[in-house]
Design goal:
Strand content: over 45%
Number of strands: 6
Oligomer: single chain
Number of domains: 1
CATH class: Alpha Beta
Order of helices and strands: HHEEHEEEE
Largest sheet: 6 strands, mixed
Strand order of the largest sheet: 2-1-6-5-4-3
Length: 116
């Protein structure tokens, strides 16, 4: 799978899957940075704990923009998405680094408001 296909599976698993199915898309040493956590989420145990918490919010998302920069042995994917969960609707931006078919790094944060 290429990086965009991996993120399509990630999206489907966020909406309809389990924490374990989502975790399987990540490298065992992956790191997640998100505004919802005080520190980075790192390693399999913390990742599964975070994803368990996350899927319990009944999330689903739709990408509104995704662009991949493909390098020799990895890809960097930047994009925007709309997240719906039991707390409301959120507009977010994201960056993923994907190598050898696994997510290595994920950064998500609230999308800034347009200026001007």
């Amino acid at each position: 799978m290429d990086s965009l296909q991996i993120l399509e599976v990630w999206k489907e698993n966020i909406c309809n899957g389990t924490a374990e199915q989502i975790r399987d898309l990540y490298d065992p040493n992956a790191v997640i940075f998100t505004e919802g956590a005080e520190d980075e989420i790192k390693g399999e145990v913390d990742l599964l704990r975070y994803l368990d918490w996350y899927v319990n919010k009944d999330p689903c998302l739709e990408f509104t923009n995704l662009e991949a920069i493909n390098l020799e042995d990895s890809s960097i994917v930047n994009g925007l998405f709309t997240m719906n969960n039991m707390e409301g609707v959120f507009y977010k931006r994201c960056t993923f680094v994907i190598a050898k078919g696994k997510i290595i790094t994920e950064h998500t944060s609230f999308a800034p408001q347009k200026v001007g």
